Amino acid sequence: MSTHTPAVDPEDELAERVRRLAAARAVAEIDLARVLPGYLEGKDPLLAFEEVPLPLPDAEALLSKTPPVAAPREGFSGADPYEIALRYAAGQLSRERLVDELSRWDYAPDRRPPHPLDDGVILGDWKEYLVPALDHGLIDDATYEAIRAARSGASGDGGTAPERQTDMSTKEDHA
Amino acid sequence: MSATTSSKGPADDELAKRLRHLAAVRAVAEIDMARLLPDYLEGKVLINAAFAVALNPQDAQSLATRGKRLAPVREGFSGADPYEIALRYEAGQLSREELVEELTRWEYTPDTLPPHPLDDAVIQGDWKEHVVRAFHDGLLDGETYETIRLAKNQAKGRGA
Questions:
Q1: Stretch B103-122: mean pLDDT
Q2: How far is the C-alpha of A21 from the C-alpha of B12, rounded, in Å?
Q3: Residue A31 is nearest to which of B22, B24, B37, comparing CB atoms?
Q4: B23 and A28 in contact by Cβ < 8 A?
Q5: Of A37, A145, A146, B71, which has the maximum CB count within 10 A?
Q6: What ipTM, to 2 d.p.?
Q7: Which residues from chain A sit within 8 angstroms of residue B14, using beta carbons?
Q8: Could you give the CA distance from residue A29 to residue A54 in angstroms, rounded to a whole number?
């Protein structure tokens, strides 16, 4: 069956449900990766997963995530803006709190790579985390704009917070 | 250190409890996504459709494949089998009362012998396959397990 629905339709209720579930799972996995090392301490890993509904291979995959899951930044609900947006999409944060945290975040700027002949760019926090959060539908256009406006208003430099980009090359796989 | 599983302190129990809850939340989110993804992906370009809902394409694809094999939620219940119902209880989607009621009402298939007469194994029925496993995985505590077992046997005794 072919459908007239475009692949990306923010109004699509089914997409919204899948997205919310994907965010809920992603957040649970981040939390699991943070809890697992403490849980495993002093246990035989083969026995440790006998009494919990998490198969050992899944636990191993969560523990060997690259890059490893960092601790949440103090005063924030996540280790990076993408995690904060995931928690919002999963229903753990209000929109107000989301906008507050992502306006307060100290975004690392885009940088040049160390090698002078490398003409790439190392993405700063805004492009690395916030633009994908928008592309993946974790935050909507209005929320993205609200954060951008709050940031320019607060710091006077909107330089690291560009208008919405349609450039697919900034998409990263955070899922 | 060598004294391991026998020395469970309260902090350890807290961690196990939290881990169990998170694992259940993750598992039910996966089951729900798996059931929705075949419809959601139909007629769409995988890579675009996956990114639009914060999934990577391989992940979306394998969940959709799993979804096609998954049994639907049984009518009048919160899951396709007793294990799924227990997962939803641990994930906070069902009250203990609802859990006990559903697992008491469930019509458990009995253990059966495998088709080949020389095979001396047993094909586990629903109780061993799902409820006993849920108990072992910590989704049901001993008391809840006993409550369900007794209620089920009583219902059976009444010829229900």
A1: 87
A2: 29
A3: B22
A4: yes
A5: A146
A6: 0.86
A7: none
A8: 11
- Structure token pair of residue B30: 């996966």
With a cut of 90, say whether residue B40 has pLDDT above it: yes
Q: Is A148 on the interface with B (CB under 8 A)?
A: no
Q: Please state the rounded mean pLDDT for residues B90-94.
A: 97
State chain B's maximal CA–CA distance in angstroms.
56
pTM, full prediction:
0.84
List CB contacts (< 8 A) between B25 and chain A.
24-25, 28
- What is the pLDDT at residue B4? 39
Calculate what percentage of chain B has a pLDDT beyond 90: 76
Q: What is the mean pLDDT of residues B92-106?
A: 96
Nearest-Cα residue of chain B relative to residue A85? B54
Mean pLDDT on A13-41: 95
Q: How far is A56 from chain B (nearest CA, A)?
A: 12
Instruction: Identify the band that residue B11 occupies on the pLDDT scale cut at 50, 70 and 90.
Output: low
Q: Do A175 and B56 touch (CB under 8 A)?
A: yes
User: Are the C-beta atoms of residues B124 and B82 closer than 8 Å to each other?
Assistant: no
The pair phi, psi for residue A173, each rounded to 5°, is -90, 100
Distance from CA of A131 to the nearest CA of B (A): 12
CA distance B141 to B133: 12
Contacts of B90 in chain A (CB under 8 A): 53
Chain A to chain B Cβ contacts (< 8 Å): 126
